[in-house]
Write a structure and sequence with these properties.
Jelly Rolls, 3-stranded antiparallel β-sheet
């Protein structure tokens, strides 16, 4: 059973979507291409993050972030119940930790942290940089990253709470 139908009416710049018996008008737009030398770059959790597309460009529906994670780096355990986060491991070897245990994801692996996915963390456990492509739904995590880039761990905690992120001690999932 389809819950969504799309109708494009003539040469309009709008598309009407019938979704769960509600009509939503969305403006259509051209495709977006972010080249290798484009995208805002930040230093986060010991790595370099580059925004491929942000909530400002997607109506806050999603954001995609390229994460270059050096050996030994990665975020401390955290949880964000209102965000689904997926990772495609484009290169390297990353250990994902949750309350259920640890699992290694290597190049080509896909990891899904669902809404209410619980406490999780990841760390590059190899001797070379890892490359992750992270999609967050809905968008918003990129705004948190902008605010915490360059902050001390103490200052990050206050900002994280503003974005409904719960942070845990580094050894919480050990």
């Amino acid at each position: 059973m389809s819950v969504s139908k799309r109708y494009l009416l003539g040469p309009s710049k709008h598309i009407l979507i019938l979704h769960y018996n509600r009509i939503i008008a969305m403006e259509t737009a051209n495709i977006t291409i972010t080249t290798a030398d484009q995208g805002e770059q930040l230093s986060i959790a010991g790595g370099n993050y580059r925004f491929l597309i942000t909530g400002e460009e997607t109506g806050n529906r999603f954001a995609v972030i390229e994460m270059m994670v050096p050996p030994g780096a990665g975020p401390a355990p955290h949880a964000h119940p209102d965000i689904q986060e997926t990772f495609y491991v484009a290169g390297g070897e990353v250990e994902f930790r949750t309350e259920a245990g640890k699992q290694v994801a290597t190049s080509g692996a896909f990891v899904n942290i669902p809404f209410n996915g619980g406490v999780h963390a990841f760390k590059n456990i190899s001797n070379s940089p890892a490359l992750l492509v992270c999609t967050v739904t809905p968008a918003g995590l990129e705004r948190l990253f902008r605010e915490i880039s360059g902050l001390s761990p103490q200052d990050i905690r206050a900002v994280a709470e503003k974005y409904i992120q719960k942070l845990y001690p580094p050894d919480y999932l050990d």
